[in-house]
Amino acid sequence: MSTSRRDFLATSFAGLLAAAFARPALARILLAPGQEPAFTPIRRGVGYFTLRGGTIGYLVNDGGVVVVDAQFPDSAQTFLEGFRSRTSGRPVDFLVNTHYHADHTGGNKVFRGVARHVVAHEKAAEHMRNPPGGGQAPEDQLFPDTTFTESWTTEVGDERITARYYGRAHTSGDAVITFERANVVHMGDLMFHRRHPIVDRPAGASIRNWMTVLERAAADHDADTVYIFGHANTGLPVVGSRAELLAFRDYFAALLAFVEEQVRAGRTRDEILALPGPLPGLEAYGPFGRPNPRGALVVAYEEVTSG
Q: What is the DSSP track for 183-197?
């Protein structure tokens, strides 16, 4: 990557974060997602939107419009109302869903008549129609009309967008969306920034493979890549670098090691799941919270004891 490109990132992105701490209003946009609607540009027409649910990514350039994820119906409507001034009322060429969860796809139906195509991994599309673990898809849902198994690529104006599937992780259908020339990557819920994640075992999730997926996503992009995260703990940004991906991998390694230690000590399932946490050395993630079937501690126990 050229020095000028690297310098641009360092100055624009670092400057944005510095300004956030100096200006309370901007700090609320960057560091407290989910409390008020906020559009935040990154570069080359790529940015992100936070309100309620998983972070929305977007691209607007002279050649077209792309949106990644749709949050819930109410927040999707708020997004589109604010987005129209940025697109001059143009339609969305591609709405890309990173996976099937409702806080990322519930707003799809608001894009009916706005989005020309909806793209997702084939497993995510299947899960949207038949939610794992029970339940029914909304009757008025806008489902993907374009699916892929390993990767999907398109050109929109002067940007190339690629969606890649690295394997089972948060679910069995998570896609990593790369805006190649902007060097910005939307990770969806493959990234929870210092926050205990949901691990959707009924949808095929795997903690051990999730660690590999994070390593592969980091290896496939360079040190200057800006990553958009699905979620972040209170007061933390929903954007970051390769370092955050590898730190999240290390969180999973620590979680599995912690559970393995408890099992070797002879503690029962109920005793382990009753442990409040936080993980030693990872206090920023906070306590485990009440056990739930898709909580990280529960799934870690299942993976450790089932092999």
A: TEEE-GGG-EETSPP
| Dist. CA 108–CA 139, nearest whole Å | 12
130, part of any domain: yes
Residue type, 256: L
d(CA 177, CA 188): 8
Helices 24-31 and 3-22 cross at an angle (nearest 10°) of 120
Q: What is the mean pLDDT of each run of 10 residues along the chain (307 residues)?
A: 36 35 33 71 98 97 98 97 96 98 97 98 97 86 98 98 98 98 98 97 97 98 97 96 98 98 97 94 92 92 91
Structural domain containing residue 95: 32-240
CA–CA gap between residue 306 and residue 232 (Å, rounded): 30
Q: What is the pLDDT of residue 19?
A: 34
Q: Is residue 84 part of a domain?
A: yes
- Predicted local distance difference test score (pLDDT) of residue 291: 83
Does 278 sit behind a cis peptide bond, omega within 30 degrees of 0 on the bond before it? yes
194 and 227 Cβ atoms separated by less than 8 Å: no
Residue 124 Ramachandran class (φ > 0 left, ψ -120 to 50 alpha, else beta): alpha
Domain of 124, CATH number, reads 3.60.15.10
H or E stretch at 264: helix 242-264
Q: CB–CB of 103/73 below 8 Å?
A: no
- Please state the domain count of the chain: 1
CA proximity to 159, closest of 84, 245, 96, 75: 96
Beta strands in the chain, from DSSP E residues, in sequence order: 38-43, 46-50, 56-61, 64-68, 92-96, 115-121, 146-148, 151-156, 159-165, 175-179, 184-186, 192-193, 226-228, 231-232, 239-240
Residue 246 CB contacts under 8 Å (≥ 6 apart), including other chains: 214, 215, 218
Beta bridge partners of 156: 159
Instruction: Give the model's pLDDT for residue 255.
Output: 98
